[in-house]
Write a structure and sequence with these properties.
By secondary structure, the protein is an alpha/beta fold. The chain has 9 helices and 7 strands, in the order ββαβαβαβαααβαβαα. Strand 2 (27-32), helix 1 (43-48) and strand 3 form a beta-alpha-beta unit.
Length: 269
């Protein structure tokens, strides 16, 4: 892993959100939500975790208390910010780290991990409802960010990628649509080019018909195991079953503690 590039953004101090301080926690989970979302979807998950884990959600520009900051147009600077924020926070607490993302957030998390400084004690990547790197487009081949307003709304509803309450309210959806498009455009066709991760990748597979899983494609991003954990949820566990998701995170954290021993990757050449 390399040094996270670039200076901190002026409002980067607002990037992290922690609802329940757990100084006794043995590990910290950093989490990034789906396209268009900020930190708030992770609040119920954080509350349901055992005392041994503390979840800190990462809020990118353009949402919640960073709504006045322009969202990123490309993935690299977004990932660089996430890497800076996690690295700085980890230097404060010094605990082992798990990084996780839901859908869009899984791609940002993956890109960020290749930028983390070597001293970050990373234990693994958790990906929920993860797209296959490089294959984010729907079966039609048309990129989601290029769909017209109604088709995009239908696509988000069909794949249950956005809470129904947002899609059902015209005014709310109109407000969030530009951010959704920006996030989807950022990760469309993303292909991982960093050094292979030295820690396991944990794929949380849901029961939804629109959630195919290609573990083989993920094996190219890590030198360690790719482990699949099934969740009995048809839609998005982050918004529909946060307590169930919290239980899965706790189980994975136990596995990661055994499977990794703070092994650091070599710097990319």
């Amino acid at each position: 892993m390399t040094e996270a590039p670039g200076p901190a953004a002026p409002d980067e101090a607002r990037a992290l959100q922690s609802w329940t301080a757990r100084p006794q926690a043995s590990a910290v989970v950093y989490a990034i939500a789906h396209a268009g979302a900020g930190a708030s979807p992770w609040n119920p998950v954080a509350a349901a975790l055992p005392d041994s884990l503390e979840l800190r959600a990462v809020r990118l520009p353009g949402r919640e208390n960073r709504v006045r900051s322009a969202p990123y147009a490309t993935l690299a600077p977004a990932a660089a910010e996430v890497a800076r924020v996690i690295a700085a926070d980890t230097r404060e607490h010094g605990k082992p780290v798990l990084v996780m993302g839901s859908c869009f957030g899984a791609m940002v998390s993956l890109a960020a991990l290749s930028m983390l400084p070597a001293e970050v004690p990373l234990r693994g990547l958790l990906a929920v409802r993860q797209p296959i790197p490089g294959h984010v487009a729907p079966a039609s081949g048309e990129r989601p960010a290029a769909l017209n307003a109604q088709d995009l709304r239908n696509w988000l509803r069909e794949y249950r990628l956005t809470p129904a309450a947002l899609l059902d309210d015209d005014a709310v959806y109109e407000f969030f649509e530009p951010l959704l498009r920006a996030d989807l455009a950022m990760t469309d066709g993303y292909t991982f080019t960093g050094s292979r991760l030295p820690v396991p990748v944990f794929l949380l597979r849901t029961a939804g018909a629109h959630d195919p899983l290609d573990a083989t494609a993920w094996e190219a991003v890590t030198s360690q195991a790719v482990r699949v954990h099934d969740l009995p949820v048809g839609g998005d566990p982050l918004t529909e079953e946060p307590a169930l998701l919290a239980k899965a995170i706790a189980r994975i954290a136990d596995v990661a503690q055994v499977a990794t021993h703070a092994v650091r990757p070599a710097n990319p050449t």
